[in-house]
Write a structure and sequence with these properties.
seven-stranded parallel β-sheet; binds uridine-5'-diphosphate; single chain; binds nicotinamide-adenine-dinucleotide; two-stranded parallel ribbon
Length: 343
C-alpha cells in the first residue's frame, strides 16, 4: 500500500487531462459521497470517463439510482447505500464530499438531520481521509455568505448569516463543515480543498425539489403558472452543471486549498429568469406571485477572480444556452421518455 501511495502521488500531477505524450496516467480510486445526486452523478460520469474507479456512498434521500444506473455494469463503479452520519471504512485516494440535501425544501424537511449530515457526516469523511491519507474536497455553498452585505461576494467576506433561522441548519452546517475541514488540514496535515458553490442547474435536477430553476421549467412544461416568490426582484447567478464539475476537478487536482467561489457571475432577478424560461419554453406562460420564504437572501453573485487566476477556471455556458439542455431532460422525464438518464 505504501508503494501504491507513492505511485499514485506521482500520478496526481497528470490527473485532469494534461498527460505528457507517451505517459499513461495512473487510475485513481475516488469516493464521491452524494454521488447519486444531481451534481454528484455528473461528476461520477467525468471521473469514470477519464479512467478512474469510483465508489459512490449515498443514502438516496434526494439522490436517485436512475442518475447512475448507466454505470451499474461498469466494473470500475460501485455504489454503497450508506448514511455518512455513520462511520465507514474504505480505501481510496481522493474524496469528493457532496452528501447533503441542497434544495431549501429538502434541507428544511428535517433540519436536525441536515445539520447532522453537515457536521457529523463531514467529521466522519475527514476521519476517513485522515486514516487513509486521502485528499479531501468539501462542497460548501454560497449560503455561507447568508444575506450578503457585500456584492459581489469575495471569498474573504465572512458573511451575514442568521444562526437561529430556518435556513441555519444548512448555512451554519456548511460553515461548520468548512471549519472542520480547515482544522483537519491544520491539525492533521490533511490535504483539503473547499469549493463554495453558487446556484447550479442542469439535467437530473429533482423535478419537484422546489428550487427556482426546476420549478419554473417544470411549471412551464406542465402549462402551470410560474411561481415568483416575493416581488421577484431578488437575484441569483446560475451556473450550468458541467461548468461546476470542471471547476471541482480542477480544484481537486490543483495546488490550492481555497475556499474558491465556483459559480457563473451572470446575475438575474427572478422576474428576468422567468422571462428566459418563457422565451425558451412557452412565451405565454403566466406568472403568479407568492409570498416569499423567511430569510431569503436578496442578492447573490460570485466574484470568481480567485478561481480564474489560481485554477485557470471560468464557466463557459450562459443561462440561455444551458437552460435548453435542461429542458430536454425535464421534457423526457415529465412526459415519460425512457432515455432521460442518458444526458
Ligand atoms: P442533491 O440533493 O441532488 O444531492 C445530494 C446527494 O447527497 C443526494 O444523492 C442525497 O441522497 C445524498 N445525501 C444526502 N444526505 C446524505 C447522507 N446523510 N448520507 C449519504 N448521502 C446523503 O444536491 P446537489 O445539488 O447535487 O448538491 C450536491 C452538493 O453540492 C451538496 O453538498 C450541496 O450542498 C452542494 N451545493 C449545491 C448547489 C446547487 O445549486 N446544486 C449549490 C451550493 C452547494
Ligand atoms: N471515521 C470513519 N472512517 C474511518 C476513520 C474514521 O468513519 O476510516 C470516523 C470516526 O468514526 C470518527 C470520525 O471519523 O467519528 C473522526 O475520526 P478521527 O480519527 O479524526 O477522530 P476520533 O475518532 O479520534 O474522534
Ligand atoms: N423562488 C421563486 N419561485 C420558486 C422557487 C424559488 O421565486 O418557485 C425564489 C426564491 O425565493 C429565491 C430564489 O428563487 O429568492 C432562489 O431559490 P432556490 O430555492 O432555487 O435557491 P436558493 O438560492 O434560495 O438556495
Amino acid at each position: 500500500p505504501a508503494a501504491r501511495h507513492r505511485e499514485l502521488a506521482g500520478a496526481r500531477h497528470f490527473v485532469g487531462g494534461k498527460v505528457p505524450l507517451g505517459l499513461k496516467r495512473k487510475a485513481l480510486r475516488v469516493l464521491v459521497t452524494g454521488g447519486a445526486g444531481f451534481v454528484g452523478s455528473h461528476l461520477v460520469d467525468r471521473l469514470l470517463e477519464r479512467g478512474d474507479s469510483v465508489i459512490v456512498v449515498d443514502n438516496l434521500f434526494t439522490g436517485r439510482k436512475d442518475n447512475v444506473v448507466h454505470h451499474f455494469a461498469n466494473p470500475n463503479f460501485e455504489m454503497i447505500r450508506h448514511d455518512v452520519v455513520e462511520p465507514i471504512l474504505l480505501e481510496v485516494d481522493q474524496i469528493y464530499h457532496l452528501a447533503c440535501p441542497a434544495s431549501p425544501v429538502h434541507y428544511k424537511y428535517n433540519p436536525v438531520k441536515t445539520i447532522k449530515t453537515n457536521v457529523v457526516g463531514t467529521l466522519n469523511m475527514l476521519g476517513l481521509a485522515k486514516r487513509i491519507g486521502a485528499k479531501f474536497l468539501l462542497t460548501s455553498t454560497s449560503e455561507v455568505y447568508g444575506d450578503p452585505l457585500q456584492h459581489p461576494q469575495v471569498e474573504t467576506y465572512w458573511g451575514n448569516v442568521n444562526p437561529i433561522g430556518v435556513r441555519s441548519c444548512y448555512d451554519e452546517g456548511k460553515r461548520t463543515a468548512e471549519t472542520l475541514t480547515m482544522d483537519y488540514h491544520r491539525g492533521a496535515n490533511l490535504e483539503v480543498r473547499i469549493a463554495r458553490i453558487f446556484n447550479t442547474y442542469g439535467p437530473r435536477m429533482c423535478i419537484d425539489d422546489g428550487r427556482v430553476v426546476s420549478n419554473f421549467v417544470a411549471q412551464a412544461l406542465r402549462k402551470e403558472p410560474l411561481t415568483v416568490y416575493g416581488d421577484g426582484k431578488q437575484t441569483r447567478s446560475f451556473q450550468y452543471v458541467s461548468d461546476l464539475v470542471e471547476g471541482l476537478m480542477k480544484l481537486m487536482e490543483g495546488d490550492h486549498v481555497g475556499p474558491f467561489n465556483l459559480g457563473n457571475p451572470g446575475e438575474f432577478t427572478m422576474l428576468e429568469l422567468a422571462k428566459v424560461v418563457q422565451d425558451t419554453i412557452d412565451p405565454n406562460a403566466r406568472i403568479e406571485f407568492r409570498q416569499n420564504t423567511q430569510d431569503d437572501p436578496h442578492k447573490r453573485k460570485p466574484d470568481i477572480s480567485r478561481a480564474k487566476e489560481l485554477l485557470g477556471w471560468e464557466p463557459k455556458i450562459p443561462l440561455r444556452e444551458g437552460l435548453p439542455l435542461m429542458v430536454t431532460d425535464f421534457r423526457k422525464r415529465i412526459f415519460g421518455d425512457q432515455d432521460s438518464t442518458a444526458t
